[in-house]
Every structure is written in C-alpha cells, then in structure tokens.
Amino acid sequence: MTSFARRPSRLPAWLLLAGILLVAVNLRPAISAVGPVLPVIGEDVGLGSAALGALAAVPIVAFAVVSPVVHPLARRFGVERTVAASLVLLALGTLLRSAPGPAATLWIGTALIGATVAVGNVLLPVAVKKDFPLRVPATTAWYVAVQSVFAATASGVAVPLADLGGWQLAVGVWVVLVALALLAWMPRLRAAGRVRTSGAPARPSGPGAAAPSTPRGSVYRHRLAWLVAAYMGLQSTVFYVTLNWMPTVEQDLGVDPATAGWHLFSFLAVGIAGSLAVPSLMRVGGDQRLAAVLVSVLTLVGTAGIWLVPGLVWLWVPVIGLGTGSAFVVALSLVSMRAADPATASQLSAMSQAVGYAITAVGLVLAGVLRDLAGPGASVLLLMAVVAVLVLAVGLSVGRPRTLHA
Fold first, then answer.
1. What is 3-398's CATH topology?
2. How far apart are CA 266 and CA 321, in angstroms?
3. Where are the domains positioned within the chain?
4. SS3 47
5. Which of 27, 188, 221, 291 is found 20 to 30 A from 100 (Cα to Cα)?
6. For residue 386, what are the contacts with CB-CB under 8 A and spacing of at least 6?
C-alpha cells in the first residue's frame, strides 16, 4: 500500500485545510517579489536582459527538473515528510539568495527556491485529492486564492522594501512565511509518524474517497496526460512571462517602477476573483471546456489592449490577471479531476509540472531573447498572445470529461 492511499490520522478538516493553505502561501512570494525589482537586480549584479530572462527561468527549470522525482520521494518518505523537508530547504534558499556575497549565491539560492517550490506544486493537488476528494475544484480555488493574495502583496511591496533595504530585503523577507507554514504542517507530520509507528493504515479521508490503489503503469503513455501537461505549461508561460516582464514593459512605456509594481499587484489580486469564480464555471455545460477556453480569451483581450491602447495599461494588466488566475485553478483542478485516484494524481501532477514547466522555461528564455532582439517595448506581448491561442486550442480538448488511471 502506498502513502498516497492513507490519511495520516483523523485530524480535523480545518487543520488539514490550514496546512494546505499555509504551504500554498509560500509557492509564489519568493518568485513574484522578483519581477518589480528585476531591473535593480540587473544593475546591481551586472546582468543584461537575456541573463535576467535566464535568471527568471531558473525556478521554472528547477520545477521541470525536480517535479519527476517528487512522486518517488513522496512514495518513499510520505507526502508529509517530503513537504516538511521542502519547506526547510525553501527557507535556506530564500536566505541564500538574499545574502550578501558573490553573485553565485543569487543563482544557487534561486535554483534551490525553484526546486523546493516544485515539491509543493506537485504534492498540494495530491493532498487535496486525499483529504477533500468531493471538493477538489473548491479547495483548489481557495488555496490558489490565498496563494495569490500573498503573491500580490509580495509584488506590490517589493519596490518600497527595496527602497528601504535593497532588493535583498524585498526578496528575502518572505522567509518568515515559510517558518509559519512549517509550524502549521507539523501536526500532519507528527500524525503521519504515529501511523507509521502503529503500522495501521488510516481510512480514506471522507465519503467518496478513492480506495487504496497503486498505479499500474506510467501516465506518460496516455494522450490525456500530455494534454493536461500541455495546458499546465502553456498557461504557466503566460503567467510567468507577465510576472517577470510586465513591470519592465511598463517602464518602457513610461510607467514609474513603483506604479508598475502596484500594477503587478493588481494583476495578482484580480486573479483571486478569477480563481474563486472558476469552480462554478467548471460546472457549466457538464464539462470544463468553457472554463478552459474563456481564460485564454481574457489573456488575449488584455495583451491586445496593452498593444493597441497602452495608456490604459492599468486596466489591461488586471484583465490578464483575471485570465491567468482562473487558468491556474483550471490547470490544477484538471490534474485531480482527470486522475482516478491519489496515486495516479501524484504521477499526473509530477508529469504535468515537469513537462509544463519545461515549456514555461523555454517561454521565459524566449521572452528575454525577444526583448534583446527587438529592444525596449511591448514585443514580449506577441509571445504571450501566441501562447494564449495555444491555451485555447488545448483547452477545447482537455476540458472534455475523461478519467485517467495509470
């Protein structure tokens, strides 16, 4: 029997949810705080646009590289221990990245952050599948909403914090949240230890929970898994290109850095509304096609608006945020909804993160190269628009109701 089929103990639902939410809180701020101060980092460390694009892509590359090994690690050590270890290493990476010293610490710390965030990216959908099997879209929406609140806050206060104590303070202060998440996760860790000591498996987490199951093969051989992975990667590409490059694009258009940072705050904050609305939208028509497609339409409207009417950038950026915030919930929900059981969900989550973030990493590097070739301006918006069209096309297929059992 695998660890995915067991509930650690009869912990109350509110405590299980609190652990999920507080871990989710830490999956964005360490990354979203970078975009508004990316030009400052470049000036301080001496990096050009292509190098900054590579720096922005480091966490995404780490997502792609680490995600495939998260499933075996969680099977070996359990979801609870694996997540706890990742939080400890996330704190170390956050401190290392912002520590004074050689530029190498910036790159190493950023890579460590990406590697540890990848663990949470893969295992939170698994935790949702285990603990709230009948409320996957709603639970996913809530943890994405909470995640987005803190991601938005991190981007909004990045420039003011950098003015106070340099970019190192702006990107390093979020280690406090990691410590809080680790404290909230400890009851699950202790309960899992008691289960292993007793040797008695816990019961499924609620009515309708999946029975214990071991995957019979690899999800990589299923077309549906590749569609889920493609949707994950393409929607993530739009999000991370916006997150890392929109403040720079706005500054090219004449917006001051602090205002651009707050526009990024609005991008992330409006995404909260989108993420909370998605569960209802995903029930329209009996499948998820409408939700999967509509989010890309919003992105296209926003990018076209910035290109055609840049004076209203304060309006168009939140429109993009509404689309990307919704798309992320759709992508995560599809991982759980298309999987027949928690064990398959773990495999599918790992695959979708690995393949998906490899796509995203390529997109981020292309955005930096495109900017170097085209010079300052809104050229990266063309890349975002092309990817949004691909999201729409994949959404039409992956949104059809089907279930995958590896």
1. Growth Hormone; Chain: A; (1.20.1250)
2. 8
3. 3-398
4. coil
5. 27
6. none
